[in-house]
């Protein structure tokens, strides 16, 4: 199974939120509404929505990075004009969200949200700051590995994917129940971006590559 | 519309939870306003998301996708920025502190042989992948009897997929993630 199960008790919030009943698997599968997807256009996005480092008057603190990759379908074909949305903590591991009470500093020059549409090759591209790891209340001394949240639309509403991209060699992977909820190691590795020297820009930013492959649905067994 | 190629699961990117902090990134002003409220055929759908203890889920994100009043599936942009008169078919709403959400839209026409419905996805902290369901309408009883998907749902749970009428052009649809009255969720 590629995707995590609904119930993964090591991640406490699943205990009261995971459906307990068997999911219904309609014999006819999804119908034409569910097999289509909303369409998004460039006129709906700001020109700089994919650069999280220029949304304020000053430069955000932290390590500047370029994150790019392709959105592909199961046959390896690019998904064009797909809306990709991202959000993340700042370099200190703090989200610009009232609910985040981690006593790390907010950065007045970093909101941590961006979006873009994929191009004809299915490629998205963001410029941002490497997020910090941060503590959470799931268990004693719980820390999330650094990650960027991704939200992606495919060509079918049933393909809708929300996931998280991680960074290579994070020492927190073995301790993180959200990452570990994915049953197979080879599937967990699909969420880890790859450092790319060719993408890295001299005197400016480190480059990370990460491709996203959309399945039929995340609800598939 | 192209049907996505059947995927070999080997390469599929796994899902992860939306987490608790999507609130400053994903919701947007026009998100719940799928159709403008001044349209004479506008309807509102309100509801709550509840967990297995019956407690409200204050950090869920709901997305709807539907055909228009004629059963046409929208094929043009407008999901984020609507021009006031526009209908995009896509809506997004985060829940409030009481687990509440709302959408203003139009009732979809039937697409194909089934009864009219709105496709719904719910994301939340604690959901490692979304739950998918459908919102049907209470006045379509006859069409429900012939709906191929509803036919596969055990009769005693079918009601969880049907909105309640709350007034003239107003409906209620609660999502119970777990436990008594658990909403029927779909896997395709």
Automatic annotation (TrEMBL), chain A:
Organism superkingdom: Bacteria
GO BP field: 3,4-dihydroxybenzoate catabolic process
UniProt EC number: 1.13.11.3
Enzyme class, UniProt record, top EC level: oxidoreductase
Lineage: Bacteria, Bacillati, Actinomycetota, Actinomycetes, Streptosporangiales
Residues annotated as transmembrane: none
Protein name as catalogued: Protocatechuate 3,4-dioxygenase subunit beta
Family: Belongs to the intradiol ring-cleavage dioxygenase family.
Molecular functions per Gene Ontology: ferric iron binding; protocatechuate 3,4-dioxygenase activity
Keyword Manganese: no
Transcription found in the keyword field: no
Domain Intradiol ring-cleavage dioxygenases stretches: 67-95
UniProt KW keywords: Dioxygenase, Oxidoreductase
Species of the source: Actinomadura montaniterrae
Automatic annotation (TrEMBL), chain B:
Domain Intradiol ring-cleavage dioxygenases intervals: 42-179
Ubl conjugation recorded as keyword: no
Record keywords: Dioxygenase, Oxidoreductase
Xref: Pfam families: Dioxygenase_C
EC number, as in UniProt: 1.13.11.3
InterPro entries: Intradiol_dOase_C, Intradiol_dOase_core, Intradiol_RC_Dioxygenase, Protocat_dOase_a
Listed Gene3D superfamilies: Aromatic compound dioxygenase
GO molecular function: ferric iron binding; protocatechuate 3,4-dioxygenase activity
Enzymatic class: oxidoreductase
UniProt similarity note: Belongs to the intradiol ring-cleavage dioxygenase family.
Protein name: Protocatechuate 3,4-dioxygenase subunit alpha
Organism: Actinomadura montaniterrae
